[in-house]
Amino acid sequence: MADDKALTPRAEDFSAWYNEVVQRAELADHSPVRGSMVIRPWGFGIWERMQRALDDMFKATGHENAYFPLLIPMSFIEREKEHVKGFKPELAVVTHAGGKELEEPLVIRPTSETIIYSMYAKWVQSYRDLPVLLNQWANVMRWELRTRLFLRTSEFLWQEGHTAHATDTEAQEETLRMLDVYRTFMEEWIAMPVVTGLKSDAEKFAGAVRTYTCEAMMQDRRALQAGTSHHLGQNFSRQFGLTFQSEEGREEYAWNTSWGVSTRLVGGMVMTHGDDTGIVVPPRLAPAQVVVVPIYRKEEEREGVVGKAHELRERLTDVGVRVRVDDRDHLNPGAKFYEWERKGVPFRLEIGPRDLAKEQVVLVKRVTAKGEDRKAFLPEAQAVAELPDRLDAFQGELLEAARARREAHSHRGVQSLDELKEILEGPGGFVYTGWSGDPEVEERVKAETKDTLRCIPDPDFRSETPPSRCIGGGESRMEVMWARAY
Amino acid sequence: MADDKALTPRAEDFSAWYNEVVQRAELADHSPVRGSMVIRPWGFGIWERMQRALDDMFKATGHENAYFPLLIPMSFIEREKEHVKGFKPELAVVTHAGGKELEEPLVIRPTSETIIYSMYAKWVQSYRDLPVLLNQWANVMRWELRTRLFLRTSEFLWQEGHTAHATDTEAQEETLRMLDVYRTFMEEWIAMPVVTGLKSDAEKFAGAVRTYTCEAMMQDRRALQAGTSHHLGQNFSRQFGLTFQSEEGREEYAWNTSWGVSTRLVGGMVMTHGDDTGIVVPPRLAPAQVVVVPIYRKEEEREGVVGKAHELRERLTDVGVRVRVDDRDHLNPGAKFYEWERKGVPFRLEIGPRDLAKEQVVLVKRVTAKGEDRKAFLPEAQAVAELPDRLDAFQGELLEAARARREAHSHRGVQSLDELKEILEGPGGFVYTGWSGDPEVEERVKAETKDTLRCIPDPDFRSETPPSRCIGGGESRMEVMWARAY
Q: How far is Cα B110 from Cα A98, in angstroms, rounded to an integer?
């Protein structure tokens, strides 16, 4: 499917650009079911690599995978009162099954705390059975009115970690450990820097005691909540009877945490690195890191360059590079270049008859810094030898560029609501201010600006000079970060 | 959770044994939602290894993964008339979502042909877009009245491959290619030999032109349908407008195939290899292939043997063996032996203070042939060096034992319905007979014996002398295999 129309430029309409690029890079498509998307092979290949990397990190921190039911009795969801308030409006409900009306309606899981902790209650008897450290890769459903591919769909794919601990302290450590796993993953794999911190009570997960978040800045300077880690206290263990006998022989309620990231991360990748040509996939996530395009005009040239292309694929595979050869005969090289640039492959190798004779290749980089050459003419052996390092370097450059952009649009020391408004309605970005902790101030800012308190940043992200005044007037008790959010 | 009660012996009540062993090996548990199970970490670890192996084989045969919606409009399911007849009685239906009644009910996918081919119709224009070779890992729902963990649950996990081709011939080749992938996987990974062949029209998939199957014999001599591969012809492409322009410029309907295996395979593994002590996990699927149990009585012995256990774990990990050290202090060695035998770990390494002094270990094999020693006293270095080969050998022995058992209970040359009944109501097994191809004969056998025509076996599995008489009388046109099935 050739599709040569240019994308709407980001500067003209970022939202239109996003919708177009996601479909035209063949990451995903709309389905006939309102609010549900189809993840196409290129998009799923990226998600698979995210899954693999996260899964390895979860296992390295002592977690195992398990699988719990898709359907949850309505009465379970209703048991934790903040939880039901948060999720009830978004539920999809199964009322009939096997040709009969069900006695009790079942909901498609919007998240699995209730069903999972009901099982832990069955499995855990003693402090010796703790901690329980499980993760589940699953689909979940939250009925949404306005949907956008990857960012907000009724059904999405995610992982949800659910743990049970003997003490509050251990649960808090776990909550922060997984927040740190997320931050590391987002930076090292998606090349997407994040600000981590604590959510205000108004913004925390329905049923949590504390929610920690990773907030990433997209190119339109809006915040994307990219992952959250919740300390659930004993809220769920009390409702589901998740108790254990302590070392001292007392019956106690366990302490729970839950943490999740979803296919939304693919949208975050797109909005962090994409340009007006297409998406850009960080090398560590790219299903193909290099595409080899043989170039020929005459049939007698074909065999030589196509043969060389496959030979290079093998040599690069041997040094650990993921390569595709695009040897389709019905497309000209220009159409292939355009397609793979749109799909964000980090490097392209071109080989024509003259290159063949000189044993050289043309290496083209998907994104370059100002003044950097896009094309390099390299001896074959050098290209093969250098590509692993060039891919690593490219991964690092993407992270640095995203970090520099975020810093350029971070506004610190903002004192007044007017100034906050001016920034967020103008250039946008992350705005750091003081806060008294008063929820009314938070509510007022949200009502007047449509912006939300994204988090109370962790020490790494706080301003050197702590703010003295609250954005709503009076004394500041903590620094907070505001942004318009997805 | 110590659980020392012996299992019901298989010979006494195979079905009770199965239900007990699945739960007590901590593979899975019943959930509060009728018909849905929870897959616990030990069971999920086995499933993960099955997934990884199959996924690699799918990719090696040119397939990519994608993801399609969980919910399907009721009208889609109703479009293919055999399909709806097969699946409608088992559907779970979402009638309300987001607090409102839906205009059209949505069903939770029982299988995804309809939604997937509706998308292919959008993506495919020309013969150049073919073949489309996609696979999806997903949960599906078929409302069942009588459920059994892994074997028959309302929700289960599976993969479903869906392909589109330009010609009938290519689709037929794909159908057989994937049948062969399944057979290879089941033999090489699950050590579960299968008979492959064609289903009769009465037993084929609802909507298929031809269904091929893998039939495995369980220890109670019943057949387990372990995987199927369907040639769908143009049945779905016609209903969903999946057309393409051929090389000659004609508009044509594509040819489809679909193929799937599910978490049922875990049940197949249990019923193929388990014994009265517990399950037996083939080494290639085992989350832990070796468990190291340090043995000590006095506190001063502890440090040495536990240290050695971890050292051995590292050395074995270096040679590619998956190892766990069971250094829990509150369980005695006997309880640990029992737990890991129940969970089917292929080998156990015991290390006590005397072994430490002699630099030797005690290696205990989970299943031995008649006359083979269970225990081997080996120098440490030798145990480490030999374990990879011993694991390979164990894998092979499991397959051979299962194959020998199947052959011992395969009855060929059976001529009369009385004889067939006698076998299947007595010792059981796979019974090969002639068949005229008349569906009335098939129906009569099923009604009188509760046994079903499992398949028309592929050449590899046919009797040396083809049967001349049909089991229902008259001339035979083909050899068929009958069994009582799960």
A: 12
